[in-house]
Amino acid sequence: MKIKELKEKNLIGIVYTDGDFDCNGNQLTSLKGAPSKVDGNFYCRNNQLTSLEGAPSKVDGYFYCNDNQLTSLKGAPSEVNGYFYCNDNQLTSLKGAPSEVNGSFYCSSNQLTSLKGAPSKVDGDFYCNINQLTSLEGAPSEVDGNFNCRNNQLTSLHDIHKIIKKCKHFYCNNNKIKDSILGLLLIQGLLEVEGNHPAFEILNKYLGKGKMGLYDCQTELTDAGFDDYAQL
What sign does the dihedral 43-50-48-3 (CA atoms) show? Predict the structure, then answer.
């Protein structure tokens, strides 16, 4: 038996134990009736949800709403103390996402054209790969782990250091970036950059070398004929 709407916590297909709430794979079209607070993880993936209205306002563990038909994050918890998975939906916007996530944030494999509405701070990794992004405006300014924007439609990283101020690894493979990668050197804590163009190999040599490294990198990029890449 499958259920279409949550009304009670003990219906068939629903598991509510050890602080976790699991309603995966129940063909749900609504989360109405879900608990307002979950002490563990909240699982509602593999349903037919188009909205998160009715979801808990606070989840102390991980929040899984991936593999649904979500077009919006309206109704998402305002506080998530673990990872947040909203990948593999039909999202065109991140408006409604928690402002801060104490773990990783996955919004890959959607239809995003903008990152506006994303958390301002992510304590783990941020994955926005496999979307339709032409800009990273709205991305978290602080990412304690990796920033993955592979497989989008980015053509420039102009002023990237003003958008992302902190991350460890930056992955931008499979885009069409043609200019302005120098700002990556100004991102705090950045250890490695992956991109398709040879200019990224040059840039990696100067990570963590401060303003002098910025100048030397710009010189080497220019000498290699990569003038457009040697811009902030």
Answer: positive
Longest CA span, the chain: 68
Order of strands, sheet of 79-80, starting from the edge strand that comes earlier in the sequence: 37-38, 58-59, 79-80, 100-101, 121-122, 142-143
Give the residue carrying structure tokens 């420039």: 156
Domain assignments of the chain as residue spans, ordered by start: 1-153
DSSP per-residue codes, 30-98: B-TT--SEESS-EE--SS--S--TT--SEESS-EE--SS--S--TT--SEESS-EE--SS--S--TTS-
Distance from the first to the final alpha carbon of the chain:
58
Mean pLDDT of 161-169: 98
Instruction: Please name the CATH architecture into which domain 1-153 falls.
Output: Alpha-Beta Horseshoe (3.80)
pTM of the model: 0.92
Return the sign of the alpha-carbon dihedral for residues 131, 134, 139, 142: positive
Beta sheet of 84-85, edge-to-edge order: 15-17, 20-22, 42-43, 63-64, 84-85, 105-106, 126-127, 146-148, 169-171, 192-194
Average pLDDT value for residue range 89-115: 96
Encoded tokens for 146: 């990796």
**pLDDT, tens digit (0-9, with 9 covering 90-100), for 67-77:** 999 999 999 99
Bridge partners (DSSP) of residue 106 are: 85, 127
So what's the pLDDT on residue 163? 98
Which pLDDT band, with edges at 50, 70 and 90, does 100 fall under?
confident
CB 170, CB 191: distance < 8 Å: no
